[in-house]
Amino acid sequence: FKQKSSDRIIHFLNPEEIKVLKYLERIPSECVDSYKWLLIGLSIGQRVSDLLGLKPENLRKATNGLYIDIMQQKTKKAVTIGVADPVVISLLENEFPKVLSQVSFNKQIKVICKIAGISEVVRGFKNNPKTRRKEVVEGPKYIFVTSHIMRRSFASNYYGKIETPLLMNITGHTKEST
Which strands make up the sheet holding 59-62, listed edge to edge? Predict the structure, then answer.
């Protein structure tokens, strides 16, 4: 069964929340690599499978930044993403994060967002362990953060700021409505 789009609750990180994350200090040592992947993911808008599969070989230096060349796993599209953010460029060139599982990444980004104070009370879906069903609950935004928030934030924050075909090309979307 597919959820109706009118019933969906979509969360994304706004530019202010991303800025807070970018300059966050005192990250627990076990979350450092997740933190790096989170910042990279917010800058490149790729699916978590493509993000966590990045290797230094995917990087290409440019005069005004850095390019990332990847083959998207889901769509089999070759995509080139320009990175201009100095913080993210520094991470990619000097402190490339270690490989992580998607499960530990999802757990750790919730911790990171909690530390960053991303705690606005919002509505979202959580599994009820008793009924084993998703239920709409209210809670701090960080409990609803998953890896897809990076892609959604990228698309939401750049929509209308860069040309839509370019944004669609980076994210691999085929329809503007998506």
Answer: 59-62, 65-71, 78-83
pLDDT means per 10 residues in the chain (178 residues)? Answer: 68 96 95 98 94 96 90 90 93 95 97 97 93 93 95 91 86 78
Write a three-state SS string for the chain.
Answer: CCCCHHHCCCCCCCHHHHHHHHCCCCCCHHHHHHHHHHHHHHHHCCCHHHHHCCCHHHEEEECCEEEEEEECCCCCCEEEEEECCHHHHHHHHHCCCCCCCHHHHHHHHHHHHHHCCCCCEEEEEEEECCCCEEEEEEEEHHHHCCCHHHHHHHHHHHECCECHHHHHHHHCCCCCCC
Q: What's the predicted TM-score (pTM) here?
A: 0.90
What is the tens place of the pLDDT at every residue in 121-147?
999 999 999 999 999 999 999 999 999
Contacts of 112 (CB under 8 A, 6+ apart): 21, 24, 27, 31, 34, 35, 38
